[in-house]
DNA sequence: GAGTTTGAAACT
DNA sequence: CAGTTTCAAACTC
């Protein structure tokens, strides 16, 4: 690994120049090359020794960590791309690494990536790009020089992909491939390659991972000494500690080259071919984001694998499709924002031609995801750097490269920034195949880039994502659109606005609020929320952020507790989630979508100033689920509604009910009493604790993640989907997580009824408990966040 | 499809 | 920070 990688790096350096290597490295590389011969055997041994260990760690770590840290991790990008498989291993690394990553990985990789991009851009002409795009669409991997990388990825990926199926196979082969590819292609993509390799290796489950880490270690150590034992011991250490760097590198690698996805493969076959490439890239690009999202654990890993696998294999494993679909959604969200940023850069660098480049690289990866998501994590590092708050815009501004163009084109409408919300994807029923179908159908033949703006991403997600797609696309009427969206369950991802006066540059605009560009389906007038007006959009976002840093942050925050504790339930149960600011409903009883809490599928919390809260998902009181009781009590009028609930909600409501075990109890506790009364949040069950950990349940901001150092993707506000919520938690932006959602954000006590403690945690109960919560929350949340970032 | 209601966002 | 206005979604007819 190390050799191949280094070699590639050298070559790349020649071409690209510079970036890759520091003098030390070059030396190390040379040395390593010489040493490598010797090392092989020892290294392998070393790896072998290591590999067993890691798996164990990985497993445990994932489980333990995921709940708390993962949310952060995923956001980090860190190793995510590596893959679900890796995650287990890297879990620690990620956390540890995250901090380190920025330095090491970000610098080198980012630079490399940029170089690549530039190179590619310079090399490729627009025509070539177009050709590539077409190829990609066709399923062919692009052949251009820049594209070579993609090929490499593909090839290497293939093995891995298969490996995924059979974990055992493949590690070394992949390595060999890597080396070859690296040497042969000597593409700028060197970064990519490593990444791919890693991905593939990881896919193989691990031993490979060790290798990677080892390779790095080897480099460092080779120079100094040949003592294998020492190396091994060191390596082991390194693996643990340094691994982060490795992960970083992976991330980096993924970001740059991989960042670009081919827009969409038309055919399954194409898919397959693309998929072959895809794993690497996807893993690489999406990988981070994906991982971020996926980190959750074994299950996540599996899903990811499945995704990659599916994509890669093209295999059409239907089984995985669903999962993949989910992930895709996840990825998209994440990707989107990242994309946005990355994309823009990319565009800038490439001078707009990027799309092709992106396509190429992406194309290779093109998997369903790609189609769906144009996004790529792209250069996470750069993004990470961005200080911005999590706003998507920020992310965009900062990380132009990431943006991907979704070419979708058309059919759909346009381009959307992918919203976090692609919640649709998550919907169980449709997900996989539908998405694929949609995607396929949608196949973006067009990729014409309007320009940089376009780069931003047209997200297909809405359309692709789901149910919505076809219908929505066709339909223009805002109402229909909305409803569809709701029905689809998507909440925000595919939002369609109908703004008349706000120019879609205010939070009134759902699209804007979600960090997404308005698309055709939108019925907005005078819309400035389009790629063309990117500058304006970004500026506006900044202004809004300056006013309220969390303006674009997910509105719904999930309590970590729920995650860890409740586990399944928590993820599902809305109860754990809370609206960051809380609602202020006066007349709706929090039983209609007017209520953001209700709309987000979460219960009202202390932060809420609502009157007569009947929120079926949970009252302020913390009475938790409530539902019926409350409703019964006060709302006689509302009752019908409750039962009815919005169609869109029904699903969620049902789920919630199941999860929450809604108190069907009619008795209604007087709404107010419950609410205000502060029934103990804790009493309600999980709420208090949940609140304590702020996890973001839904997120409105697509971009958001990036803004904060890490590119977290805020999941779209899942207004309806709870699935999202669970996922989101993981995805939650670090900052969000760190701070108690509510507390951190704002203490709401407008009315003074309830004041969230300063730090706010969300604490449901005012009073003493709140204090407790604060402590707990504050502590866990922040720490976790920082490390990753 | 038009009009009303609602509550968040924006403004003062 | 509080009150008011603006806005667009949600809802109703």
Topology record:
Blueprint: H1 2-16, H2 23-76, H3 84-123, H4 126-138, H5 145-165, H6 171-185, H7 192-204, H8 207-224, H9 228-241, H10 243-259, H11 268-284, H12 287-294, H13 298-313, H14 318-350, H15 354-365, H16 368-372, H17 380-385, H18 392-398, E1 401-402, H19 423-426, H20 431-442, H21 452-455, H22 461-465, H23 468-474, H24 478-488, H25 510-513, H26 534-547, E2 556-558, H27 560-566, H28 568-572, E3 578-579, H29 596-599, H30 628-634, H31 638-644, H32 647-661, H33 671-676, H34 687-692, E4 695-698, H35 704-707, H36 722-731, H37 734-738, H38 741-745, H39 767-788
Antiparallel strand pairs: 2-3, 2-4
Helix pairs in contact: 1-2, 1-6, 2-3, 2-8, 2-9, 2-12, 2-27, 2-36, 2-39, 3-5, 3-10, 3-13, 3-39, 4-15, 5-6, 5-7, 5-11, 5-13, 5-15, 6-7, 7-8, 7-10, 7-11, 8-9, 9-10, 10-11, 11-12, 11-13, 11-15, 12-13, 12-14, 13-14, 14-15, 14-18, 14-20, 18-26, 23-24
The protein binds a DNA duplex (12 and 13 nucleotides) through α24.
Count the E strands: 4
**Strand adjacency order, main sheet:** 3-2-4
As a whole number of angstroms, the C-alpha radius of gyration is 24 Å
Largest sheet: 3 strands, antiparallel
| Proportion in helices | 55-70%
Number of helical segments with 4 or more residues: 39
In brief, what are we looking at here?
By secondary structure, the chain is mainly α. Among the domains are: 299 residues, no CATH class; 190 residues, no CATH class. A three-stranded antiparallel sheet has the order 3-2-4.
């Amino acid at each position: 690994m190390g050799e191949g990688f280094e070699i590639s790096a050298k070559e790349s350096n020649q071409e690209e120049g510079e970036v890759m290597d520091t003098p030390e490295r070059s030396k190390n590389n040379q040395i390593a090359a010489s040493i490598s011969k010797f090392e092989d055997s020892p290294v392998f041994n070393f790896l072998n020794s290591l590999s067993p260990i890691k798996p164990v760690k990985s497993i445990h770590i994932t489980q333990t960590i995921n709940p708390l840290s993962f949310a952060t991790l995923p956001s980090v990008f860190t190793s995510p791309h590596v893959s679900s498989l890796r995650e287990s291993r890297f879990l620690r690394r990620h956390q540890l690494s995250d901090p380190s990553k920025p330095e090491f990985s970000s610098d080198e990789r980012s630079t490399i990536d940029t170089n690549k991009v530039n190179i590619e851009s310079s090399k490729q002409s627009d025509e070539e790009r177009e050709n590539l795009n077409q190829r990609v669409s066709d399923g062919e991997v692009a052949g251009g020089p820049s594209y070579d990388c993609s090929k490499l990825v593909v090839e290497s990926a293939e093995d891995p992909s298969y490996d995924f199926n059979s974990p055992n196979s493949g590690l070394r082969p992949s390595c060999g491939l890597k080396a070859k590819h690296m040497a042969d292609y000597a593409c700028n993509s060197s970064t990519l390659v490593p990444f791919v390799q890693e991905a593939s290796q990881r896919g193989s489950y691990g031993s490979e991972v060790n290798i990677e880490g080892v390779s790095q270690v080897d480099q460092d150590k080779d120079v100094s000494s040949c003592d294998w034992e020492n190396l091994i011991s060191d390596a082991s250490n390194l693996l643990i500690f340094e691994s982060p760097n490795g992960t970083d590198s992976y991330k980096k690698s993924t970001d740059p080259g991989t960042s670009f996805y081919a827009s969409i493969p038309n055919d399954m076959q194409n898919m397959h071919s693309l998929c072959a490439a895809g794993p690497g890239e996807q893993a690489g690009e999406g990988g981070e984001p994906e991982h971020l999202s996926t980190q959750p654990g074994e299950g996540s890993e599996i899903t990811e694998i499945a995704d990659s696998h599916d994509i890669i294999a093209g295999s059409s494993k239907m089984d995985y499709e669903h999962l993949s679909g989910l992930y895709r959604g996840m990825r998209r969200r994440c990707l989107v924002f990242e994309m946005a940023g990355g994309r823009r850069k990319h565009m800038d660098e490439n001078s707009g031609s990027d799309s092709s480049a992106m396509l190429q690289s992406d194309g290779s990866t093109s998997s369903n995801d790609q189609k769906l998501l144009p996004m790529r994590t792209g250069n996470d590092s750069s993004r990470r750097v961005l200080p911005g708050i999590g706003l998507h815009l920020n992310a965009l501004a900062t990380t132009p490269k990431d943006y991907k163009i979704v070419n979708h084109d058309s059919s759909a409408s346009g381009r959307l920034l992918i919203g976090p919300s692609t919640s649709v994807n998550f919907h169980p029923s449709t997900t996989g195949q539908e998405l694929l179908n949609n995607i396929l159908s949608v196949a973006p033949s067009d990729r014409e880039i309007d320009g940089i703006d376009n780069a931003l991403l047209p997200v297909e997600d809405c359309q692709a994502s789901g149910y919505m797609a076809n219908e929505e696309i066709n339909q223009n009427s805002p109402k229909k659109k909305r409803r569809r969206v709701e029905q689809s369950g998507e909440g925000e991802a595919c939002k369609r606005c109908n703004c008349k006066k706000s120019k879609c540059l205010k939070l009134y605009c759902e699209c804007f609020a979600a960090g997404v560009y308005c698309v055709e389906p939108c019925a907005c007038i005078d819309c400035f929320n389009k790629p063309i007006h990117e500058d304006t959009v970004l500026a506006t976002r900044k202004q809004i952020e300056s006013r309220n840093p969390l303006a674009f942050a997910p509105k719904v925050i999930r309590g970590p507790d729920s995650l860890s504790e409740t586990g399944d339930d928590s993820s599902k149960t809305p109860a754990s989630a809370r609206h960051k600011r809380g609602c202020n409903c006066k007349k709706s009883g929090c039983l209609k979508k007017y209520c953001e809490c209700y709309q987000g599928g979460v219960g009202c919390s202390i932060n809420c100033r609502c009157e007569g809260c009947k929120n079926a998902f949970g009252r302020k009181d913390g009475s938790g689920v409530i539902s019926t009781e409350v409703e019964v009590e006060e709302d006689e009028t509302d009752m019908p509604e409750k039962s009815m609930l919005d169609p869109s909600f029904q699903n969620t409501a049902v789920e919630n009910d199941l999860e929450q075990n809604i108190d069907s109890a009619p008795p209604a506790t007087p709404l107010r009493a419950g609410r205000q009364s502060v029934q103990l949040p804790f009493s309600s069950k999980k709420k208090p604790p949940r609140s304590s950990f702020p996890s973001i349940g839904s997120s409105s901001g697509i971009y958001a993640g990036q803004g904060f150092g890490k590119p977290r993707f805020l999941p779209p506000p899942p207004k309806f989907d709870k699935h999202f919520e669970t996922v989101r938690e993981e995805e939650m932006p670090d900052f969000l997580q760190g701070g108690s959602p509510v507390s951190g954000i704002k203490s709401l006590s407008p009315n003074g009824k309830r004041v969230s403690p300063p730090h706010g945690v969300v604490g449901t109960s005012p009073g003493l408990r709140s204090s407790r919560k604060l402590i707990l929350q504050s502590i866990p949340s922040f720490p976790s966040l920082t490390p990753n970032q």
